[in-house]
């Protein structure tokens, strides 16, 4: 029965994609991410400090060029999401974060500095670009000569997100940032304070484990105790999942407020809306209720109900040989 529900949702999602004007491009695209900011962390104790405040093992930067991680509060809820890069000089670590809260991220790091020899500053000279192929996973590095001092690394969260490029130079941008969010939402990936307000979501609810943002082999860090407890309990009932809307609903979708209700055909609460990009939205949903519902609705202004389809992200089918509620609820 559950497999048939999944099949129904996938067919419905495909039909709605065909009917939408916002289709994925088949050519590689560049995008300047004006909503992202770079912080530069320097000093001999920088790795020890970052290890204390981040959910991932920063020592992995010695093996990889990039790393996805979260900053949690003491209750184990997400404060900020970041991407880490080892600078070309090997003497500093770059932290990419949401531009709207970059000062808060900086203050959060320095809050735990104590006697460590570390300095954190906003690097206003650098910009963040993304280079990716919207409808495919495998993409080569940009076939152009990038300026000296440019840092390029694969997005550590998913092979479908291409490359992150950090540079002091101005590169060509061929696509709007909203289309990058469209790609992220289709993968059930939230990013920045507009997708999860600081202190409201647990890492497992935002699929941080699937996007390699958690490490359970490192030592203690802020928020580690509750995160480990959820991991070893093995059940996550609510998750970020994508919702797909028909093109006719796009004008109304723009007016929907954060945490608006998502309900089923029986008017029962299924979850809460978080954000939208073109015809995709991301919502924190009760997985079992969402999948077993025949129809979902987003409650907009004045009680208007916008019909939408649950769209299972591509990594779901890659990690599960067949659809299973139990596998989804477990990590």
UniProtKB/TrEMBL annotation:
GO MF annotation terms: transferase activity
Subcellular location: Mitochondrion
Keyword Transmembrane: no
Annotated CAF17 C-terminal domain residues: 237-317
Record key words, sorted: Mitochondrion, Transferase, Transit peptide
Pfam families assigned: Beta-barrel_CAF17_C
Domain of life of the native organism: Eukaryota
One GO BP: iron-sulfur cluster assembly
GO CC list: mitochondrial matrix
Name this protein carries in UniProt: Putative transferase CAF17-like protein, mitochondrial
Source organism of the structure: Trichinella pseudospiralis
């Amino acid at each position: 029965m559950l497999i048939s529900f999944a099949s129904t949702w996938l067919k419905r999602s495909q039909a709605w994609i065909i009917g939408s004007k916002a289709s994925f491009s088949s050519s590689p695209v560049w995008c300047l991410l004006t909503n992202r900011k770079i912080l530069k962390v320097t000093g001999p104790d920088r790795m020890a400090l970052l290890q204390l405040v981040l959910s991932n093992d920063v020592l992995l930067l010695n093996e990889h060029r990039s790393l996805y991680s979260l900053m949690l509060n003491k209750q184990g809820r997400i404060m900020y999401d970041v991407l880490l890069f080892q600078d070309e000089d090997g003497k500093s670590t770059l932290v990419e974060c949401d531009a709207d809260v970059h000062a808060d991220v900086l203050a959060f790091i320095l809050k735990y500095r104590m006697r460590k020899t570390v300095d954190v500053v906003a690097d206003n000279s650098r910009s963040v670009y993304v280079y990716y192929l919207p409808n495919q996973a495998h993409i080569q590095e940009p076939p152009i000569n990038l300026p000296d001092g440019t840092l390029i690394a694969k997005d550590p969260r998913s092979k479908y997100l291409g490359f992150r490029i950090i540079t002091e130079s101005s590169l060509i941008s061929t696509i709007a940032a909203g289309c990058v969010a469209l790609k992220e939402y289709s993968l059930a990936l939230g990013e920045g304070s507009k997708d999860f307000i600081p202190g409201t979501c647990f890492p497992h609810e935002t699929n941080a484990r699937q996007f390699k943002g958690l490490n359970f082999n490192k030592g203690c860090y802020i928020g580690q105790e509750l995160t480990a407890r959820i991991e070893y309990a093995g059940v996550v009932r609510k998750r970020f999942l994508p919702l797909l809307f028909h093109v006719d609903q796009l004008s109304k979708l723009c007016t929907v407020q954060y945490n608006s209700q998502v309900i089923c055909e029986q008017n029962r609460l299924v979850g809460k809306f978080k954000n939208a990009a073109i015809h995709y939205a991301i919502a924190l949903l009760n997985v079992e209720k969402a999948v077993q519902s025949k129809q979902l609705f987003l409650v907009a202004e004045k009680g208007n109900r916008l019909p939408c389809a649950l769209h299972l992200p591509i990594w779901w089918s890659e990690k599960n040989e067949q659809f299973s509620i139990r596998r989804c609820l477990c990590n």
